[in-house]
């Protein structure tokens, strides 16, 4: 009877996927700590006189796609069956000036085995000479052939090259990183990190997670983020960690039915669901209006040379 009680107790508390609510005072203390992180991050970045900003305009219908820049996937799920259109920033995929590759993997809808005849994919690389200016220029365009549906393909891949001119150079970050294809027990290490993040979500450790990600400051540098930008990023409500938001029925989905994807020419790795290709870090919750929502988080990991630890870059 005692053993049965311990098992039930573990199931109720030791494996709980429901987050615990913080008090208003605890949230204010956390905000104060987050403001300190913002100042630390601002001290690391460089202020550039010009802010050229590169984007990919993604348009697609009749298919699901994975879009990559230099073999790094955009941190947004375009693998929905519905048509999608988005202007997505890619400065933090470029790392510096030079030649780059924009690539796309085209998959059939979840209801089909092969790519359909009504598949349409158009990608454009757009340059804003100044990030907050009105001037823009299309510097490259990729159109998936309209006749690929007749080839009955399970997947179609295509790519184009383009050049960038940027004021920063952070190429050494991935150039010097370990080739993850040669790291033993990689999947176990990746899964352990993802579960660590999931546990932090459940515990509501938003500040602790943000502090852990302070090492990604170079993305702040590449995106020319200001103090106002960081305050939005850090201090606005976050349903994934249940930070400063009013939600009920919050639950973190288990990490299962996943596959490991090595990308970035062997320097980055992430997990995604096998069938839907979406993010494995997911939470469900109900807002005060009674509507139910799902929030997801994309992360990609790398391993610096001389280290055995996986760090988040995205």
Automatic annotation (TrEMBL):
The keyword Signal applies. The keyword Signal applies. Residues 1-19 form the signal peptide. Keywords: Signal. This is DUF4138 domain-containing protein. It comes from Bacteroides zhangwenhongii.
């Amino acid at each position: 009877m005692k053993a049965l009680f311990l098992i039930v107790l573990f199931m109720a508390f030791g494996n709980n996927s429901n987050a615990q609510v913080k008090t208003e005072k605890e949230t204010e203390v956390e905000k104060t700590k987050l403001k300190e992180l913002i100042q630390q991050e601002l001290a690391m970045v460089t202020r550039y006189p010009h802010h050229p900003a590169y984007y990919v305009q993604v348009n697609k219908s009749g298919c699901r796609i994975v879009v990559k820049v230099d073999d790094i996937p955009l941190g947004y799920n375009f693998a929905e069956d519905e048509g999608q259109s988005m202007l997505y920033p890619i400065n933090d995929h470029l790392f510096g000036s030079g030649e780059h590759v924009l690539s796309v993997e085209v998959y059939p809808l979840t209801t089909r085995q092969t790519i359909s005849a009504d598949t349409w994919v158009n990608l454009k690389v757009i340059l804003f000479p100044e990030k907050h200016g009105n001037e823009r220029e299309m510097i490259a365009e990729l159109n998936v052939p309209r006749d690929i549906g007749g080839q009955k393909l399970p997947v179609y891949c295509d790519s184009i090259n383009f050049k960038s001119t940027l004021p920063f150079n952070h190429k050494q970050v991935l150039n010097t990183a370990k080739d993850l294809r040669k790291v033993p027990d990689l999947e176990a290490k990746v899964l352990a990190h993802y579960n660590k993040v999931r546990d932090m979500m459940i515990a509501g450790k938003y500040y602790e997670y943000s502090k852990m990600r302070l090492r990604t400051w170079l993305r702040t540098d590449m995106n020319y983020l200001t103090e106002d930008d960081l305050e939005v990023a850090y201090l606005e409500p976050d349903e994934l960690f249940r930070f400063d938001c009013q939600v009920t029925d919050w639950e973190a989905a288990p990490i299962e039915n996943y596959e490991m994807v090595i990308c970035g020419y062997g320097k980055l790795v992430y997990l995604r669901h096998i069938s839907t290709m979406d993010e494995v870090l997911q939470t469900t919750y109900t807002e005060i209006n009674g509507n139910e929502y799902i929030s997801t988080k994309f992360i990609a990991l790398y391993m610096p040379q001389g280290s055995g630890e996986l760090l988040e870059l995205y």
